[in-house]
Amino acid sequence: MNGRILSVVGGMFLLTVCSKGDQGNAAAAPAAPPAPAAPATSDPSADGGTITGKIKFTGTAAKNPTIDMSEEAACKAKYPSPPTEEVVVAGAANALANVFVYVSAGLPANAKYQAPSTAVVLDQNGCRYHPHVLGIMVGQNLEIKNSDPLLHNIKAIAKKNRGFNVSQPNAGMTRDVTFSAPEVMVNLECNVHGWMHAYAGVRPDPFFAVSGADGSFSIKGLPPGTYTVEAWHERFGTQTATVTIAGTESKTANFTFAAH
Ligand SMILES: [Cu+2]
């Protein structure tokens, strides 16, 4: 019998002893390597179901306030005409942009999703945030970037996450931050420019989207199930819809907010 076989046999014997020890007195068992975690279902594949929809509003939205950038010439110079805040960004036929749409219930309770290694970029440019509304996963990097040659100080106002306060006095500065808990929404604002607001929807899964200029959104890769889909808008509030997905089908969920 050579040494290698002996060692394997010895290992097996040890394993048996450990296993018995676990039943009787777990604390006495020598530390064994932890069992590998269940693989994370990280990649919402193209195989899953899709929820698409359009978001619009009825009625007349209040005008967005014009921003007085006279004290920030470098920002002001980036606009051909005075910029406004982006509370209600409407497209043709009252399409509503900047609505955060996400699956708020219905995913398997034990499902784990790995955050993408790519960062979501939040750019401070022309003394406004780009994008104004964003979605991000727990643990995913949010790269905060300053494209203006002046001081921005971004502050996160959160309930479930730790807030942060990042000062970026110069153009080209970047800072990565992460969120540790799901939260819809984390409010972001600039302490220097009172008109600068952005909103981050932090989710434990990749099933979210932000409506575009035409009010449309698409959430892909959903496993079969019945889901609550919530649409959030900073002024018009939230709405929900129930959507059942079987196989790889595509379902529609449209939302209509009442302007006020
Ligand atoms: Cu600022």
Task: List its traits.
260 residues; Immunoglobulin-like; 2 domains; four-stranded mixed sheet; 2 helices; 17 strands; 38% strand
Q: Care to describe what's here?
A:
This protein is mainly β and 260 residues long. The protein is built from two helices and 17 strands. It folds into two domains: 1-35, no CATH class; 49-258, Sandwich (Immunoglobulin-like), CATH 2.60.40. The chain is 10% helix and 38% strand. The protein has a five-stranded mixed beta sheet with strand order 5-11-10-7-8, with no helix packed on it. Strands 1, 13, 16 and 17 form a four-stranded mixed beta sheet that branches. The radius of gyration is 25 Å and the shape is globular. The chain starts with a helix and ends with a strand. The structure holds copper (II) ion. The site of copper (II) ion has 6 residues, from loops.
